Amino acid sequence: MKDFDLKGLREKLGYTQAELASALQCGQDYISRMESNPGNMSLEFFMNLCSVARMLPNDVLSNFKLEQPKALDIPNVYGEESLKKNALKYYIAPTMELFKEKPEYQTAIKKISELDDLINIYGAKPLVALLGPSDAGKSTMINSLTGIDALLSQWTPTTSSTVYVKHINDKPAWMGENHVSIFKAEAHDKGWNFRRIHDIEYCRNHALHVGNYDILEKYCNRNSNKLHKEVDSAVVYLDSNILLSCDIVDLPGFGTEEMDDTVRAQRAKDEADIVLFLCQSNSFLNKHSDILFLKDVIRTLPVLNTKEVPLLSNLFVIASQSHVVGPEKIPQVLETRSIAFSEQLSDELIKQIFNVSKREFVEIFKTRFFSYSLDTPVLREEFENAFRELLVNSLPTIRKARLNQAIEDFKNESRTLFANEVQKYETILRDRENSKKEYEKAVREKPQKFEEINTLRNQLISFIDKSQKSNTLEIKLWEKETITEKYIINLINEKNYDKKQAKEYLLSNISDLYYAKMQEILKGSASEFNTMLTQFFKDVEKKANSLSKISVGNVQIPFDFKGALAGGIAGASVLGGLGLWAATVGNLGGYILVAKGVSLLSALGISVGGTAAAASFVAMIGGPITIGIALAIGAFAIVTSLFGDGWKKRLAKEVIKTLEKEKVINSYSDAITKFWDDSKIGLNEVVEGILQKIEEHLDNLKTIIETSDPRTIEDMITINKGLEDFFGQLPWEGSENLKALPTQTMSMSI
Predict the structure, then answer these.
(1) Concatenated DSSP letters for 56-115?
(2) Helix boundaries (H) for 101-213
(3) How far apart (Å, rounded) are the C-alpha atoms in residues 220 and 231?
(4) Are strands 207-211 and 127-131 parallel, antiparallel or unpaired?
(5) Residue 517 and residue 519: Cα distance in Å, rounded?
(6) What is the pLDDT of residues 167-199, one digit of tens each?
(7) Residues with Cβ < 8 Å from 8, sequence gap 6 or more?
(8) What are phi and psi of 113, to 5 degrees?
(9) Beta partners for 247?
(10) Alpha helix (H) ranges present in 101-243?
(11) Which distant-in-sequence residues (6+ apart) come within 8 Å of 473 by Cβ?
């Protein structure tokens, strides 16, 4: 009966609340509560109400329904980009069919696939994640924002899977008439990757079921007769205007009896660009688990601080079902809880992640608290205005600029690639003998150059090993020198905790200090590693070019090092510190990181540069590991009785005893070790990929040099000149070719 309009019926009958309470023999306050939350109405009360109204139950229910809020009115802010994509598709599609028929166009096909990936990543809509306890009303809010009651939205925790919601226009052709697809995880510890939604082969390999909206209840409902543990994620396609400006992800509530729910919620939030953190208004941020989870959200929130996207503008902390508290009291609840929560954030943590003082952060943070209610429009108006501003005005500016720049860079790089191919074939055609000598020289020098590259790699690995040892030692020494009885007593005094507050929050406060110290340590070493990587790849590029150089006169043909490097990074199983480096080299690394599950705003924030950006990335790496520690440390029991004046000292001893018993420092040192282990694995995989590309390049040179018919080389010159023009004239952002016929450019060269 949650949509029953008791107030409307009462007013139709001409009763005041007091008069209706008298007729039903109950308190006026009960009538008030039932009007605010009719879902709590008992069947007995409802039948008595029908008797007083002298109406049949069906007539009461059908004639007095609460008016559901209209879907959030969002314009199609990316409509222009959709037209550009269609123009690009029209330009490419006919020629692509011709490419597939001839083996000499394999490079062109790979470049078109790269362009497709780039557009899917930088052209992706921002991902909005709804987080919060299992009873916060996340699915209900999504149904309200979209205007479609498609998701499970009962008052009990029902969503047992990660559910992504996209616009119906985004639905891939392979789904046919179906509107829901359900996927299994990649592995036990690795979920299905939403960022690969456009990869048909990947999706088909992981798809469990496709169908219509009813299969959500069957496969994604914890209250279903059969719990489908194999289900990891679902994608739902809806026809709703808001989904033209963003994708939405509904996550299982944390803190349920199902540990998998908390793990999924932690994992999926890290790929989100915008976070809506919901908590019921009548218990708003009162539970320890709610505070810990919101703290982790803040730790891993994508950090941007630009004119278009100010700091924390992508975070909304929402008191859901605010009508229960009421319009008069809700402002005080928001202010009180924002202040109380801010007290739980350490200065060190804020400085490391956001590079601002805690005082500056708190002033911004308190403006990110909002109320929300389906029943009372005034209680959701401020949130809807701020959310609309972010989706309509703030994010599109930075997203469109990055997409336009990425495609312009791609056009220039592709043009250069095929121009170099033309130069290579022309050089070989002019002087076959000299080219053969250059090639044979390169083959002789290859072992030495590869050895030099491996020597440089080993120097980096040595740095990684030293950093791993020094970083883990540093955090252990820090714990020994800092987390002392005296420090803990001072912390209790600084927070002005009473006995109950100290037992509840102290361990969480100390876990922030561990976390902040880990970020500080890793940030320093990772920045140094970043500088070394830049020089390393410059040196490797020089050696690769010296091997692939075929020259006649002053003409030299460079090796496509950037392509080899991009392929190596994209193919690496893990990145560690290489991820930070990749994100700082522009579009190349940015879209690769997003494809691996990093949020788009995180990748953009890192590429902007600055201390906060670097800290954000390290936090992003450490976050999924250390959130488990944060939740666990909050659950540790402090059993010491706190009677008498010496309770602070006894509590400090108990805290240190608990930290030692649970081996907390080992968890953080393990996180640091994993970061550097991943860096070593990633470095080796990337370098091996580059060496393999050099081998392939030399094999290609050999094939060309040994070609007996000069006309074959002449044909390749013609083909690559055509490709240079084709990619250089891709229609996008003011290009004169937007209306050009798609077959004109390539028709002569094929």
Answers:
(1) -HHHHHHH-BPPPPPPP----TTHHHHHHHHHHHHHHHHHHHHHHT-GGGHHHHHHHHHH
(2) 106-122, 138-146, 200-206
(3) 7
(4) unpaired
(5) 5
(6) 999 998 888 899 999 999 887 767 888 888 888
(7) 64, 66
(8) -65, -40
(9) 127
(10) 106-122, 138-146, 200-206, 214-219
(11) none
- Sign of the Cα torsion 43, 48, 51, 53 reads negative
Phi, psi angle pair for 164, to nearest 5°: -95, 140
Closest C-alpha to 211, from 191, 226, 231, 241: 231
pLDDT over threshold 80, residue 364: yes
pTM of the model: 0.81
Token digits of residue 332: 């005080």
Distance CA 152, CA 147 (A): 14
Of the listed ranges 172-186, 223-237, 383-397, 611-625, the one predicted with least confidence: 611-625
CA 229 to chain centre: 24
- The pLDDT of residue 739 is 40
**For residue 740, what are its two tokens?**
């050009």
151 to 177, 237, 249, 253, 617: CA distances (angstroms):
19, 11, 11, 14, 33
Question: Mean pLDDT of all residues in the chain?
Answer: 81
Q: What is the largest CA-CA distance in the chain?
A: 108
- 499 burial (CB, 10 Å; 0-12 / 13-18 / 19+) is middle
Residue 202: CB partners within 8 Å, gap ≥ 6?
193, 196
Write down the number of H helices and E strands in the chain.
28, 9
| Location of structure tokens 């992981």 | 206
Residues in contact with 699: Cβ distance below 8 Å, sequence separation at least 6, in sequence order: none
Predicted pLDDT of residue 221: 67
Q: Quote the tokens at residue 576.
A: 């560690």
**pLDDT at site 326:** 84
Phi, psi (rounded to 5 degrees) for 236: -115, 130
Tell me if 128 sits within 8 A of 242, measured CB to CB: no
Residue with tokens 């001839």, as numbered in its chain: 102
Q: What angle do CA 353, 128, 145 make, to 5 degrees?
A: 140
582 Rama class: left (phi>0) / alpha (psi -120 to 50) / beta? alpha
Distance between CA 116 and CA 336 in Å, rounded? 48
